[in-house]
Amino acid sequence: MSYTIAIDGFSACGKSTLAKAMAKRLGYRFIDTGAMYRMIALHFLRQNVDLEDSGAVAGAMKGLRVDFVPGSNDALLNGENVETEIRGGAVSGMVSPVAAVPAVRRWIVPQQREMGKAGGIVMDGRDIGTVVFPDADLKLFITASTEIRTDRRLAEMEAKGLAATREEVATNLATRDHIDSSREDSPLRQAEDAIVLDNSNLSLEAFIEAGMAEVEKLG
Ligand code: DC
Q1: What number does the ligand 1 atom closest to the CA of 132 have?
Q2: For the segment 20-63, what is each residue's pLDDT rounded down to a tens digit?
Q3: Which H/E stretch holds residue 124?
Q4: Of the four, 72, 114, 124, 217, which is 20 to 30 A from 32 by CA?
C-alpha cells in the first residue's frame, strides 16, 4: 500500500524527525513543509519584501522555486542549497508572519498536494491533516513539553553551528506557537481524526515505534 501520512504539531516537537524516520522505514517520500515556508521567508528576507505589500509579495513569488535535494532532502531555493541558512535565527524570527500570509499559502499548498498525489508520502507541518491532506490515511498530532522542545531545538542549532541562547530559542518557539495557532488562514490545530503522540517521555526509538504501530494498524 502507498499511504499518505500527515504529521502536525507545534514547533520543535519532533515532527520532522518522526516523519523522516517513518518515510525511511516505509520507503516513502518525506516532505518537511516547514522548510518550504522557511525558504520562502529567506527569499523574502533577501529581497526585502514588505509583507503588507501584496504586489511585492506576488512579485517575489514569481519564478520562485522551492524544492529539495533528492536523497539528502536539503532545502533547495532556486537551485541553491540553503539548508543551514533556513534554520538560523533570522529566518526563524520571521517565518511565522510569512506563513500567515494567505497568498503564500495559496501558492505553496497546491505544490504540496502535487507532491503527495501518488501517495507513499510522509508530510509534516501545521495544516497537513486539516488542509493539505484532509483525507490522509493516517494523521498524527505530535506534542512534547515546552522544556523538551527548547532543549531539542537548541541542540539541533548547536549541531549546525548556529548560535543562540536558551532564552532566545524559548521565546522564538513561544512566539511562533502563538502566531501559528492564532492566524486566520489554516491555523495549527489537531484534526478531529488525528492520533495524538506525546513524546516527552519517549526515547527516539520508542517514538518511531509508536508512529510505525499506527501505520501497521492500517492493515
Ligand atoms: O516546522 P518549522 O518550525 O520548520 O516551520 C516553520 C514555520 O512555518 C512555522 O512557524 C509555521 C510555518 N508552517 C506552516 O504554517 N504550515 C506548515 N504546514 C508548516 C510550517
Answers
A1: 18
A2: 999 999 999 999 999 999 999 999 999 999 999 999 999 999 98
A3: strand 121-125
A4: 217
